[in-house]
Amino acid sequence: MKRVVVIFSLLLSFSLLAFGSEWEGIILAKMLQSMSTNRVVSVYTKDKELQKELKNSYIVKIVQTCQKSDFVFVRKDEADPGCKKPLIVFDYYQYLHTKDAVAVFFWQKGRPTIRFSQKRLQHFDLKVRGELSKFVSGND
């Protein structure tokens, strides 16, 4: 009986992780769409999981170099110092301490959390439109 409970718990955990990553791709595409006027947004990332999540998106096109991108997704300290594109990061501390990070997306207590920096958006001549504009903060 204990084995059945353990196996069920593991299966439930893996399905929730897969569900979370599916939502992550949807949320990231929505963030990009709210900042860009392009129908398709070019994104550069070294993260293989993100590339996989966004591969089938009709909004996001994964490119192979930073120079060809509109935005860069950065997990941890993967940022290329020579790349001067707007960054979207996945850690709040990194968001606060990375000058090119225009937005952050992370999970907190099982819920997605989004924040945009008004000052950094202005630096890149970007504006958040639509329903995500309420997540723009002038304090960052």
Features:
140 residues; alpha/beta; Rossmann fold; 7 strands; globular; disordered N terminus
Enumerate how many helices there are, as a single number.
4
Mean pLDDT, to the nearest integer, reads: 83
Given as residue ranges, the uncertain stretches (5+ residues, pLDDT < 50) are: 2-19
- The structural class is alpha/beta
Tally of separate domains:
1
Reconstruct the topology from this structure.
Elements: H1 2-35, E1 41-44, H2 48-54, E2 60-62, E3 71-74, E4 87-89, H3 92-97, E5 101-108, E6 111-117, H4 118-123, E7 136-137
Parallel strand pairs: 1-2, 1-3, 3-4, 4-5, 6-7
Antiparallel strand pairs: 5-6
Description:
This protein has helices at residues 2-35, 48-54, 92-97, 118-123; strands at residues 41-44, 60-62, 71-74, 87-89, 101-108, 111-117, 136-137. A 7-stranded mixed sheet has the order 2-1-3-4-5-6-7. Residues 2-19 have low confidence and may be disordered. It has a single domain (2-137), classed as Rossmann fold (3-Layer(aba) Sandwich), CATH 3.40.50. The longest helix has 34 residues, at 2-35. The N and C termini lie far apart (52 Å). It contains 4 helices and 7 strands, in the order αβαβββαββαβ. Helix content is 38%, strand content 22%. Helix 2 (48-54) links the parallel strand 1 and strand 2. The chain is globular. With 140 residues, the chain is an alpha/beta fold.
Report a brief summary of the structure.
With 140 residues, the chain is of the alpha/beta class. The chain has helices at residues 2-35, 48-54, 92-97, 118-123, and strands at 41-44, 60-62, 71-74, 87-89, 101-108, 111-117, 136-137.
